[in-house]
Amino acid sequence: MSVKVGDTAPDFTLPAQNGSTVSLRDFRGKQAVVLYFYPKDDTPGCTAESCAFRDQYEVFKNAGAEVIGVSGDSSESHQRFAAKYNLPFTLLSDKGDQVRKLYGATAAFGLFPGRVTYVIDQQGVVQYVFDSMFNFNGHVEEALKTLKQLAAR
Questions:
Q1: What is the rounded distance in angstroms from the CA atom of residue 85 to the CA atom of residue 97?
Q2: For the chain, which terminus, N or C, has the lower number of CB atoms within 10 Å?
Q3: 35 assigned to some structural domain
């Protein structure tokens, strides 16, 4: 089952790189969330994507959105990855890929972790889904475009 535009984003609680836990419901009614699933810390594509989100982080914040990255890596791996590339946003550890599976963010016949970004509005409704393994910057560009369209409503 894949989460689609118009669906209420499934809630979850996962550990973050700083030792805290983050629940999606904590953002409901407060701000939009750009939730991006990526395959693995410190790999070329994931580094490019994460750094693209980093480089536009202030633009996301100014648009009223929080950026959250999710992969199956450990919190410790996320901590090293975030420190190495100065990533200012939260990275969540989805051991066993339970949340990834809940969202349907798989690729390559469901065998490998996918690279999928969800734009979730303040009410918790999915407004956009971008699924591309190789268009790293597209995840950032499309999420920003969607947030601008939401603000114009």
A1: 24
A2: C
A3: yes
Q: Which residues pair with 129 in a beta bridge?
A: 118
Our answer to whether residue 46 is catalytic in this structure is yes
Q: Is residue 8 part of a domain?
A: no
pTM: 0.95
Sole residue written with tokens 């969800």: 118
- How many whole angstroms separate alpha carbon 40 and alpha carbon 143? 21
pLDDT in tens, the chain (153 residues): 689 999 999 999 999 999 999 999 999 999 999 999 999 999 999 999 999 999 999 999 999 999 999 999 999 999 999 999 999 999 999 999 999 999 999 876 666 788 999 999 999 999 999 998 888 888 999 999 999 998 887
Domain that holds residue 133: 13-152
Active-site position among 14, 16, 46, 91: 46
Domain count, the chain: 1
Residue type, 32: A
As given in the structure block, the two tokens for residue 20 are 């805290």
Give the CATH number, domain containing residue 72. 3.40.30.10
